Automatic annotation (TrEMBL):
Organism expressing this protein natively: Cytophaga hutchinsonii (strain ATCC 33406 / DSM 1761 / CIP 103989 / NBRC 15051 / NCIMB 9469 / D465)
Protein name as it appears in the record: Cytochrome C Planctomycete-type domain-containing protein
InterPro entries: Cyt_c_Planctomycete-type
The Cytochrome C Planctomycete-type domain, residue ranges: 73-128
């Protein structure tokens, strides 16, 4: 058995304690960071949207759809994308198509319409087009919460 000098044992013990202290600090820092890091979500920016008591489909929702969705080569015409025509005269019936899931009055944020508008992987409107504002998204959500009235 090889005999180590007391200096060697002292230095190796010191290095072990130093390593243990550093690894403890790294573990603690990673634990704090992991607990404070919120994956994939960010706080919504503060935006002053006009307060709305009742959302009108024709006055509030249709203009959003016409400006952002029912544009040429998208959700309009004889062959609309996804077979979803969002022109003023056809939008309400298209969105409420039975079994489509486009709207959900109980959980608007899980509806196909809302999910598509906030999608990161497949955004609607597509890249190159102006995305909906937070106020427009809130109007669409409120319209669904209020029972998707055709008014």
């Amino acid at each position: 058995m090889k005999r180590y000098s007391s200096v060697y044992l002292h230095i190796s013990g010191y290095m072990f304690m130093k390593y243990r202290k550093i690894s403890g600090i790294i573990f603690f820092a990673s634990f704090v960071f992991a607990c404070s890091y919120n994956k994939g979500t960010t706080a919504a920016p503060e935006v002053d949207c006009l307060p709305v008591e009742s959302v009108s489909f024709s006055a509030d929702i249709v203009p959003i759809l016409l400006t952002n969705c029912a544009i040429p080569t998208c959700h309009s015409g004889n062959n609309p994308e996804g077979n979803l025509n969002l022109e003023a005269s056809k939008a309400y019936v298209s969105l409420l198509k039975r079994g489509s899931g486009y709207v959900d009055v109980n959980d608007p944020k899980s509806s196909v319409l809302y999910s598509s508008l906030v999608s990161v992987s497949n955004p609607m409107p597509p890249e190159g087009q102006r995305p909906l504002t937070i106020c427009e998204l809130q109007l669409i959500e409120l319209w669904m919460k209020q029972g998707v009235q055709n008014n």
